[in-house]
Amino acid sequence: MKKKFGQNFLINGQIVNDIIKKSNINEKSEVYEVGPGNGVLTREILNKKPKKFLAIEIDKSLQAQLKNLFNKQNYQIVFNDALHFDETFFFHKNAIIISNLPYNISLKLLIKWIYQLKYKKWYSEMFLMFQKEVADRIIAKKNSKKFGRIALLVSAFFKVSKIMDVKKENFFPVPRVDSSVLHFELLTKPLFDIKDITKLELISRILFSSKRKKLKNKIQLLYNSDLIIKNNLSDYYDLRAENLDTETFYKMAQLL
User: What are phi and psi of 117, to 5 degrees?
Assistant: First the structure.
């Protein structure tokens, strides 16, 4: 285990069992696990005998500890960096992603998987553990100070619910913060066209910059006066980004 990889291994078996129970993994499931670490979650996944299982681990010092778990033809572990690994070669649709995500790359991985939907809908659900503070930002709603870019992007494509909070004492080494497990369910009909996700990310980056400032100057930066008048965008001049509902963000993104 190497500190630079941001690894904090879950050691509470009851919490592991609760996560697996919620995931409903069965013999028809195709499962992708990021960061199996000491294998505590991996073993419970394998006990469900999924149809296909792929795990990815960056820490090659764990190779001897983990390799014996992968003794079936459709079970495979890859020692690589998940940020630069293309999972779409291994899965076609309806895979389940499950992970106690490394804290230092959790949001980068989530955004990567969102962008992959632009080319291939290879998964249908994700069960992911984040730092509690990050999880709270992901599920934040309009008029909350925690509502920001990541909540906007996620809510366009997923129904997200919190499964549980996990105290820091349930990990080794003990991290500085508590964690939360979130369930992401891919929407049958996305609220925004995934092909235009770069527009949505651009609008969110600009409008959520300097969050305490009102939107007048930002809107005038993004749109010419004709578009502002035609679409009544001046109605939002005295608001802050956190006060806009998601439909307004989608509309403004499409106007770019």
Answer: -60, -20
Strand partners, 100: 129
The span from the CA of 43 to the CA of 10, in Å, is: 13
Q: Is the pTM of this model over 0.70?
A: yes
Q: Are strands 95-100 and 9-10 parallel, antiparallel or unpaired?
A: unpaired
CB count, 10 Å around CB of 184?
22
Q: Which two tokens stand for residue 213?
A: 């400032």
Cβ-in-10-Å burial (0-12, 13-18, 19+) of 94 comes to: middle
Domains of the chain: 3-186 (3.40.50.150), 194-254 (1.10.8)
- pLDDT tens, position by position, 99-146: 999 888 999 999 999 999 999 999 999 999 999 999 999 999 999 999
Q: Distance of CA 59 to CAs 28, 39, 56, 106, 194, Å?
A: 29, 13, 9, 16, 33
66-88: pLDDT as tens digits: 988 888 889 999 999 999 999 99
Q: Three-class SS of residue 70?
A: coil
Neighbouring C-alpha atoms within 13 Å toward the C-beta of 122: 19
Alpha-carbon span 180 to 131, nearest angstrom: 6
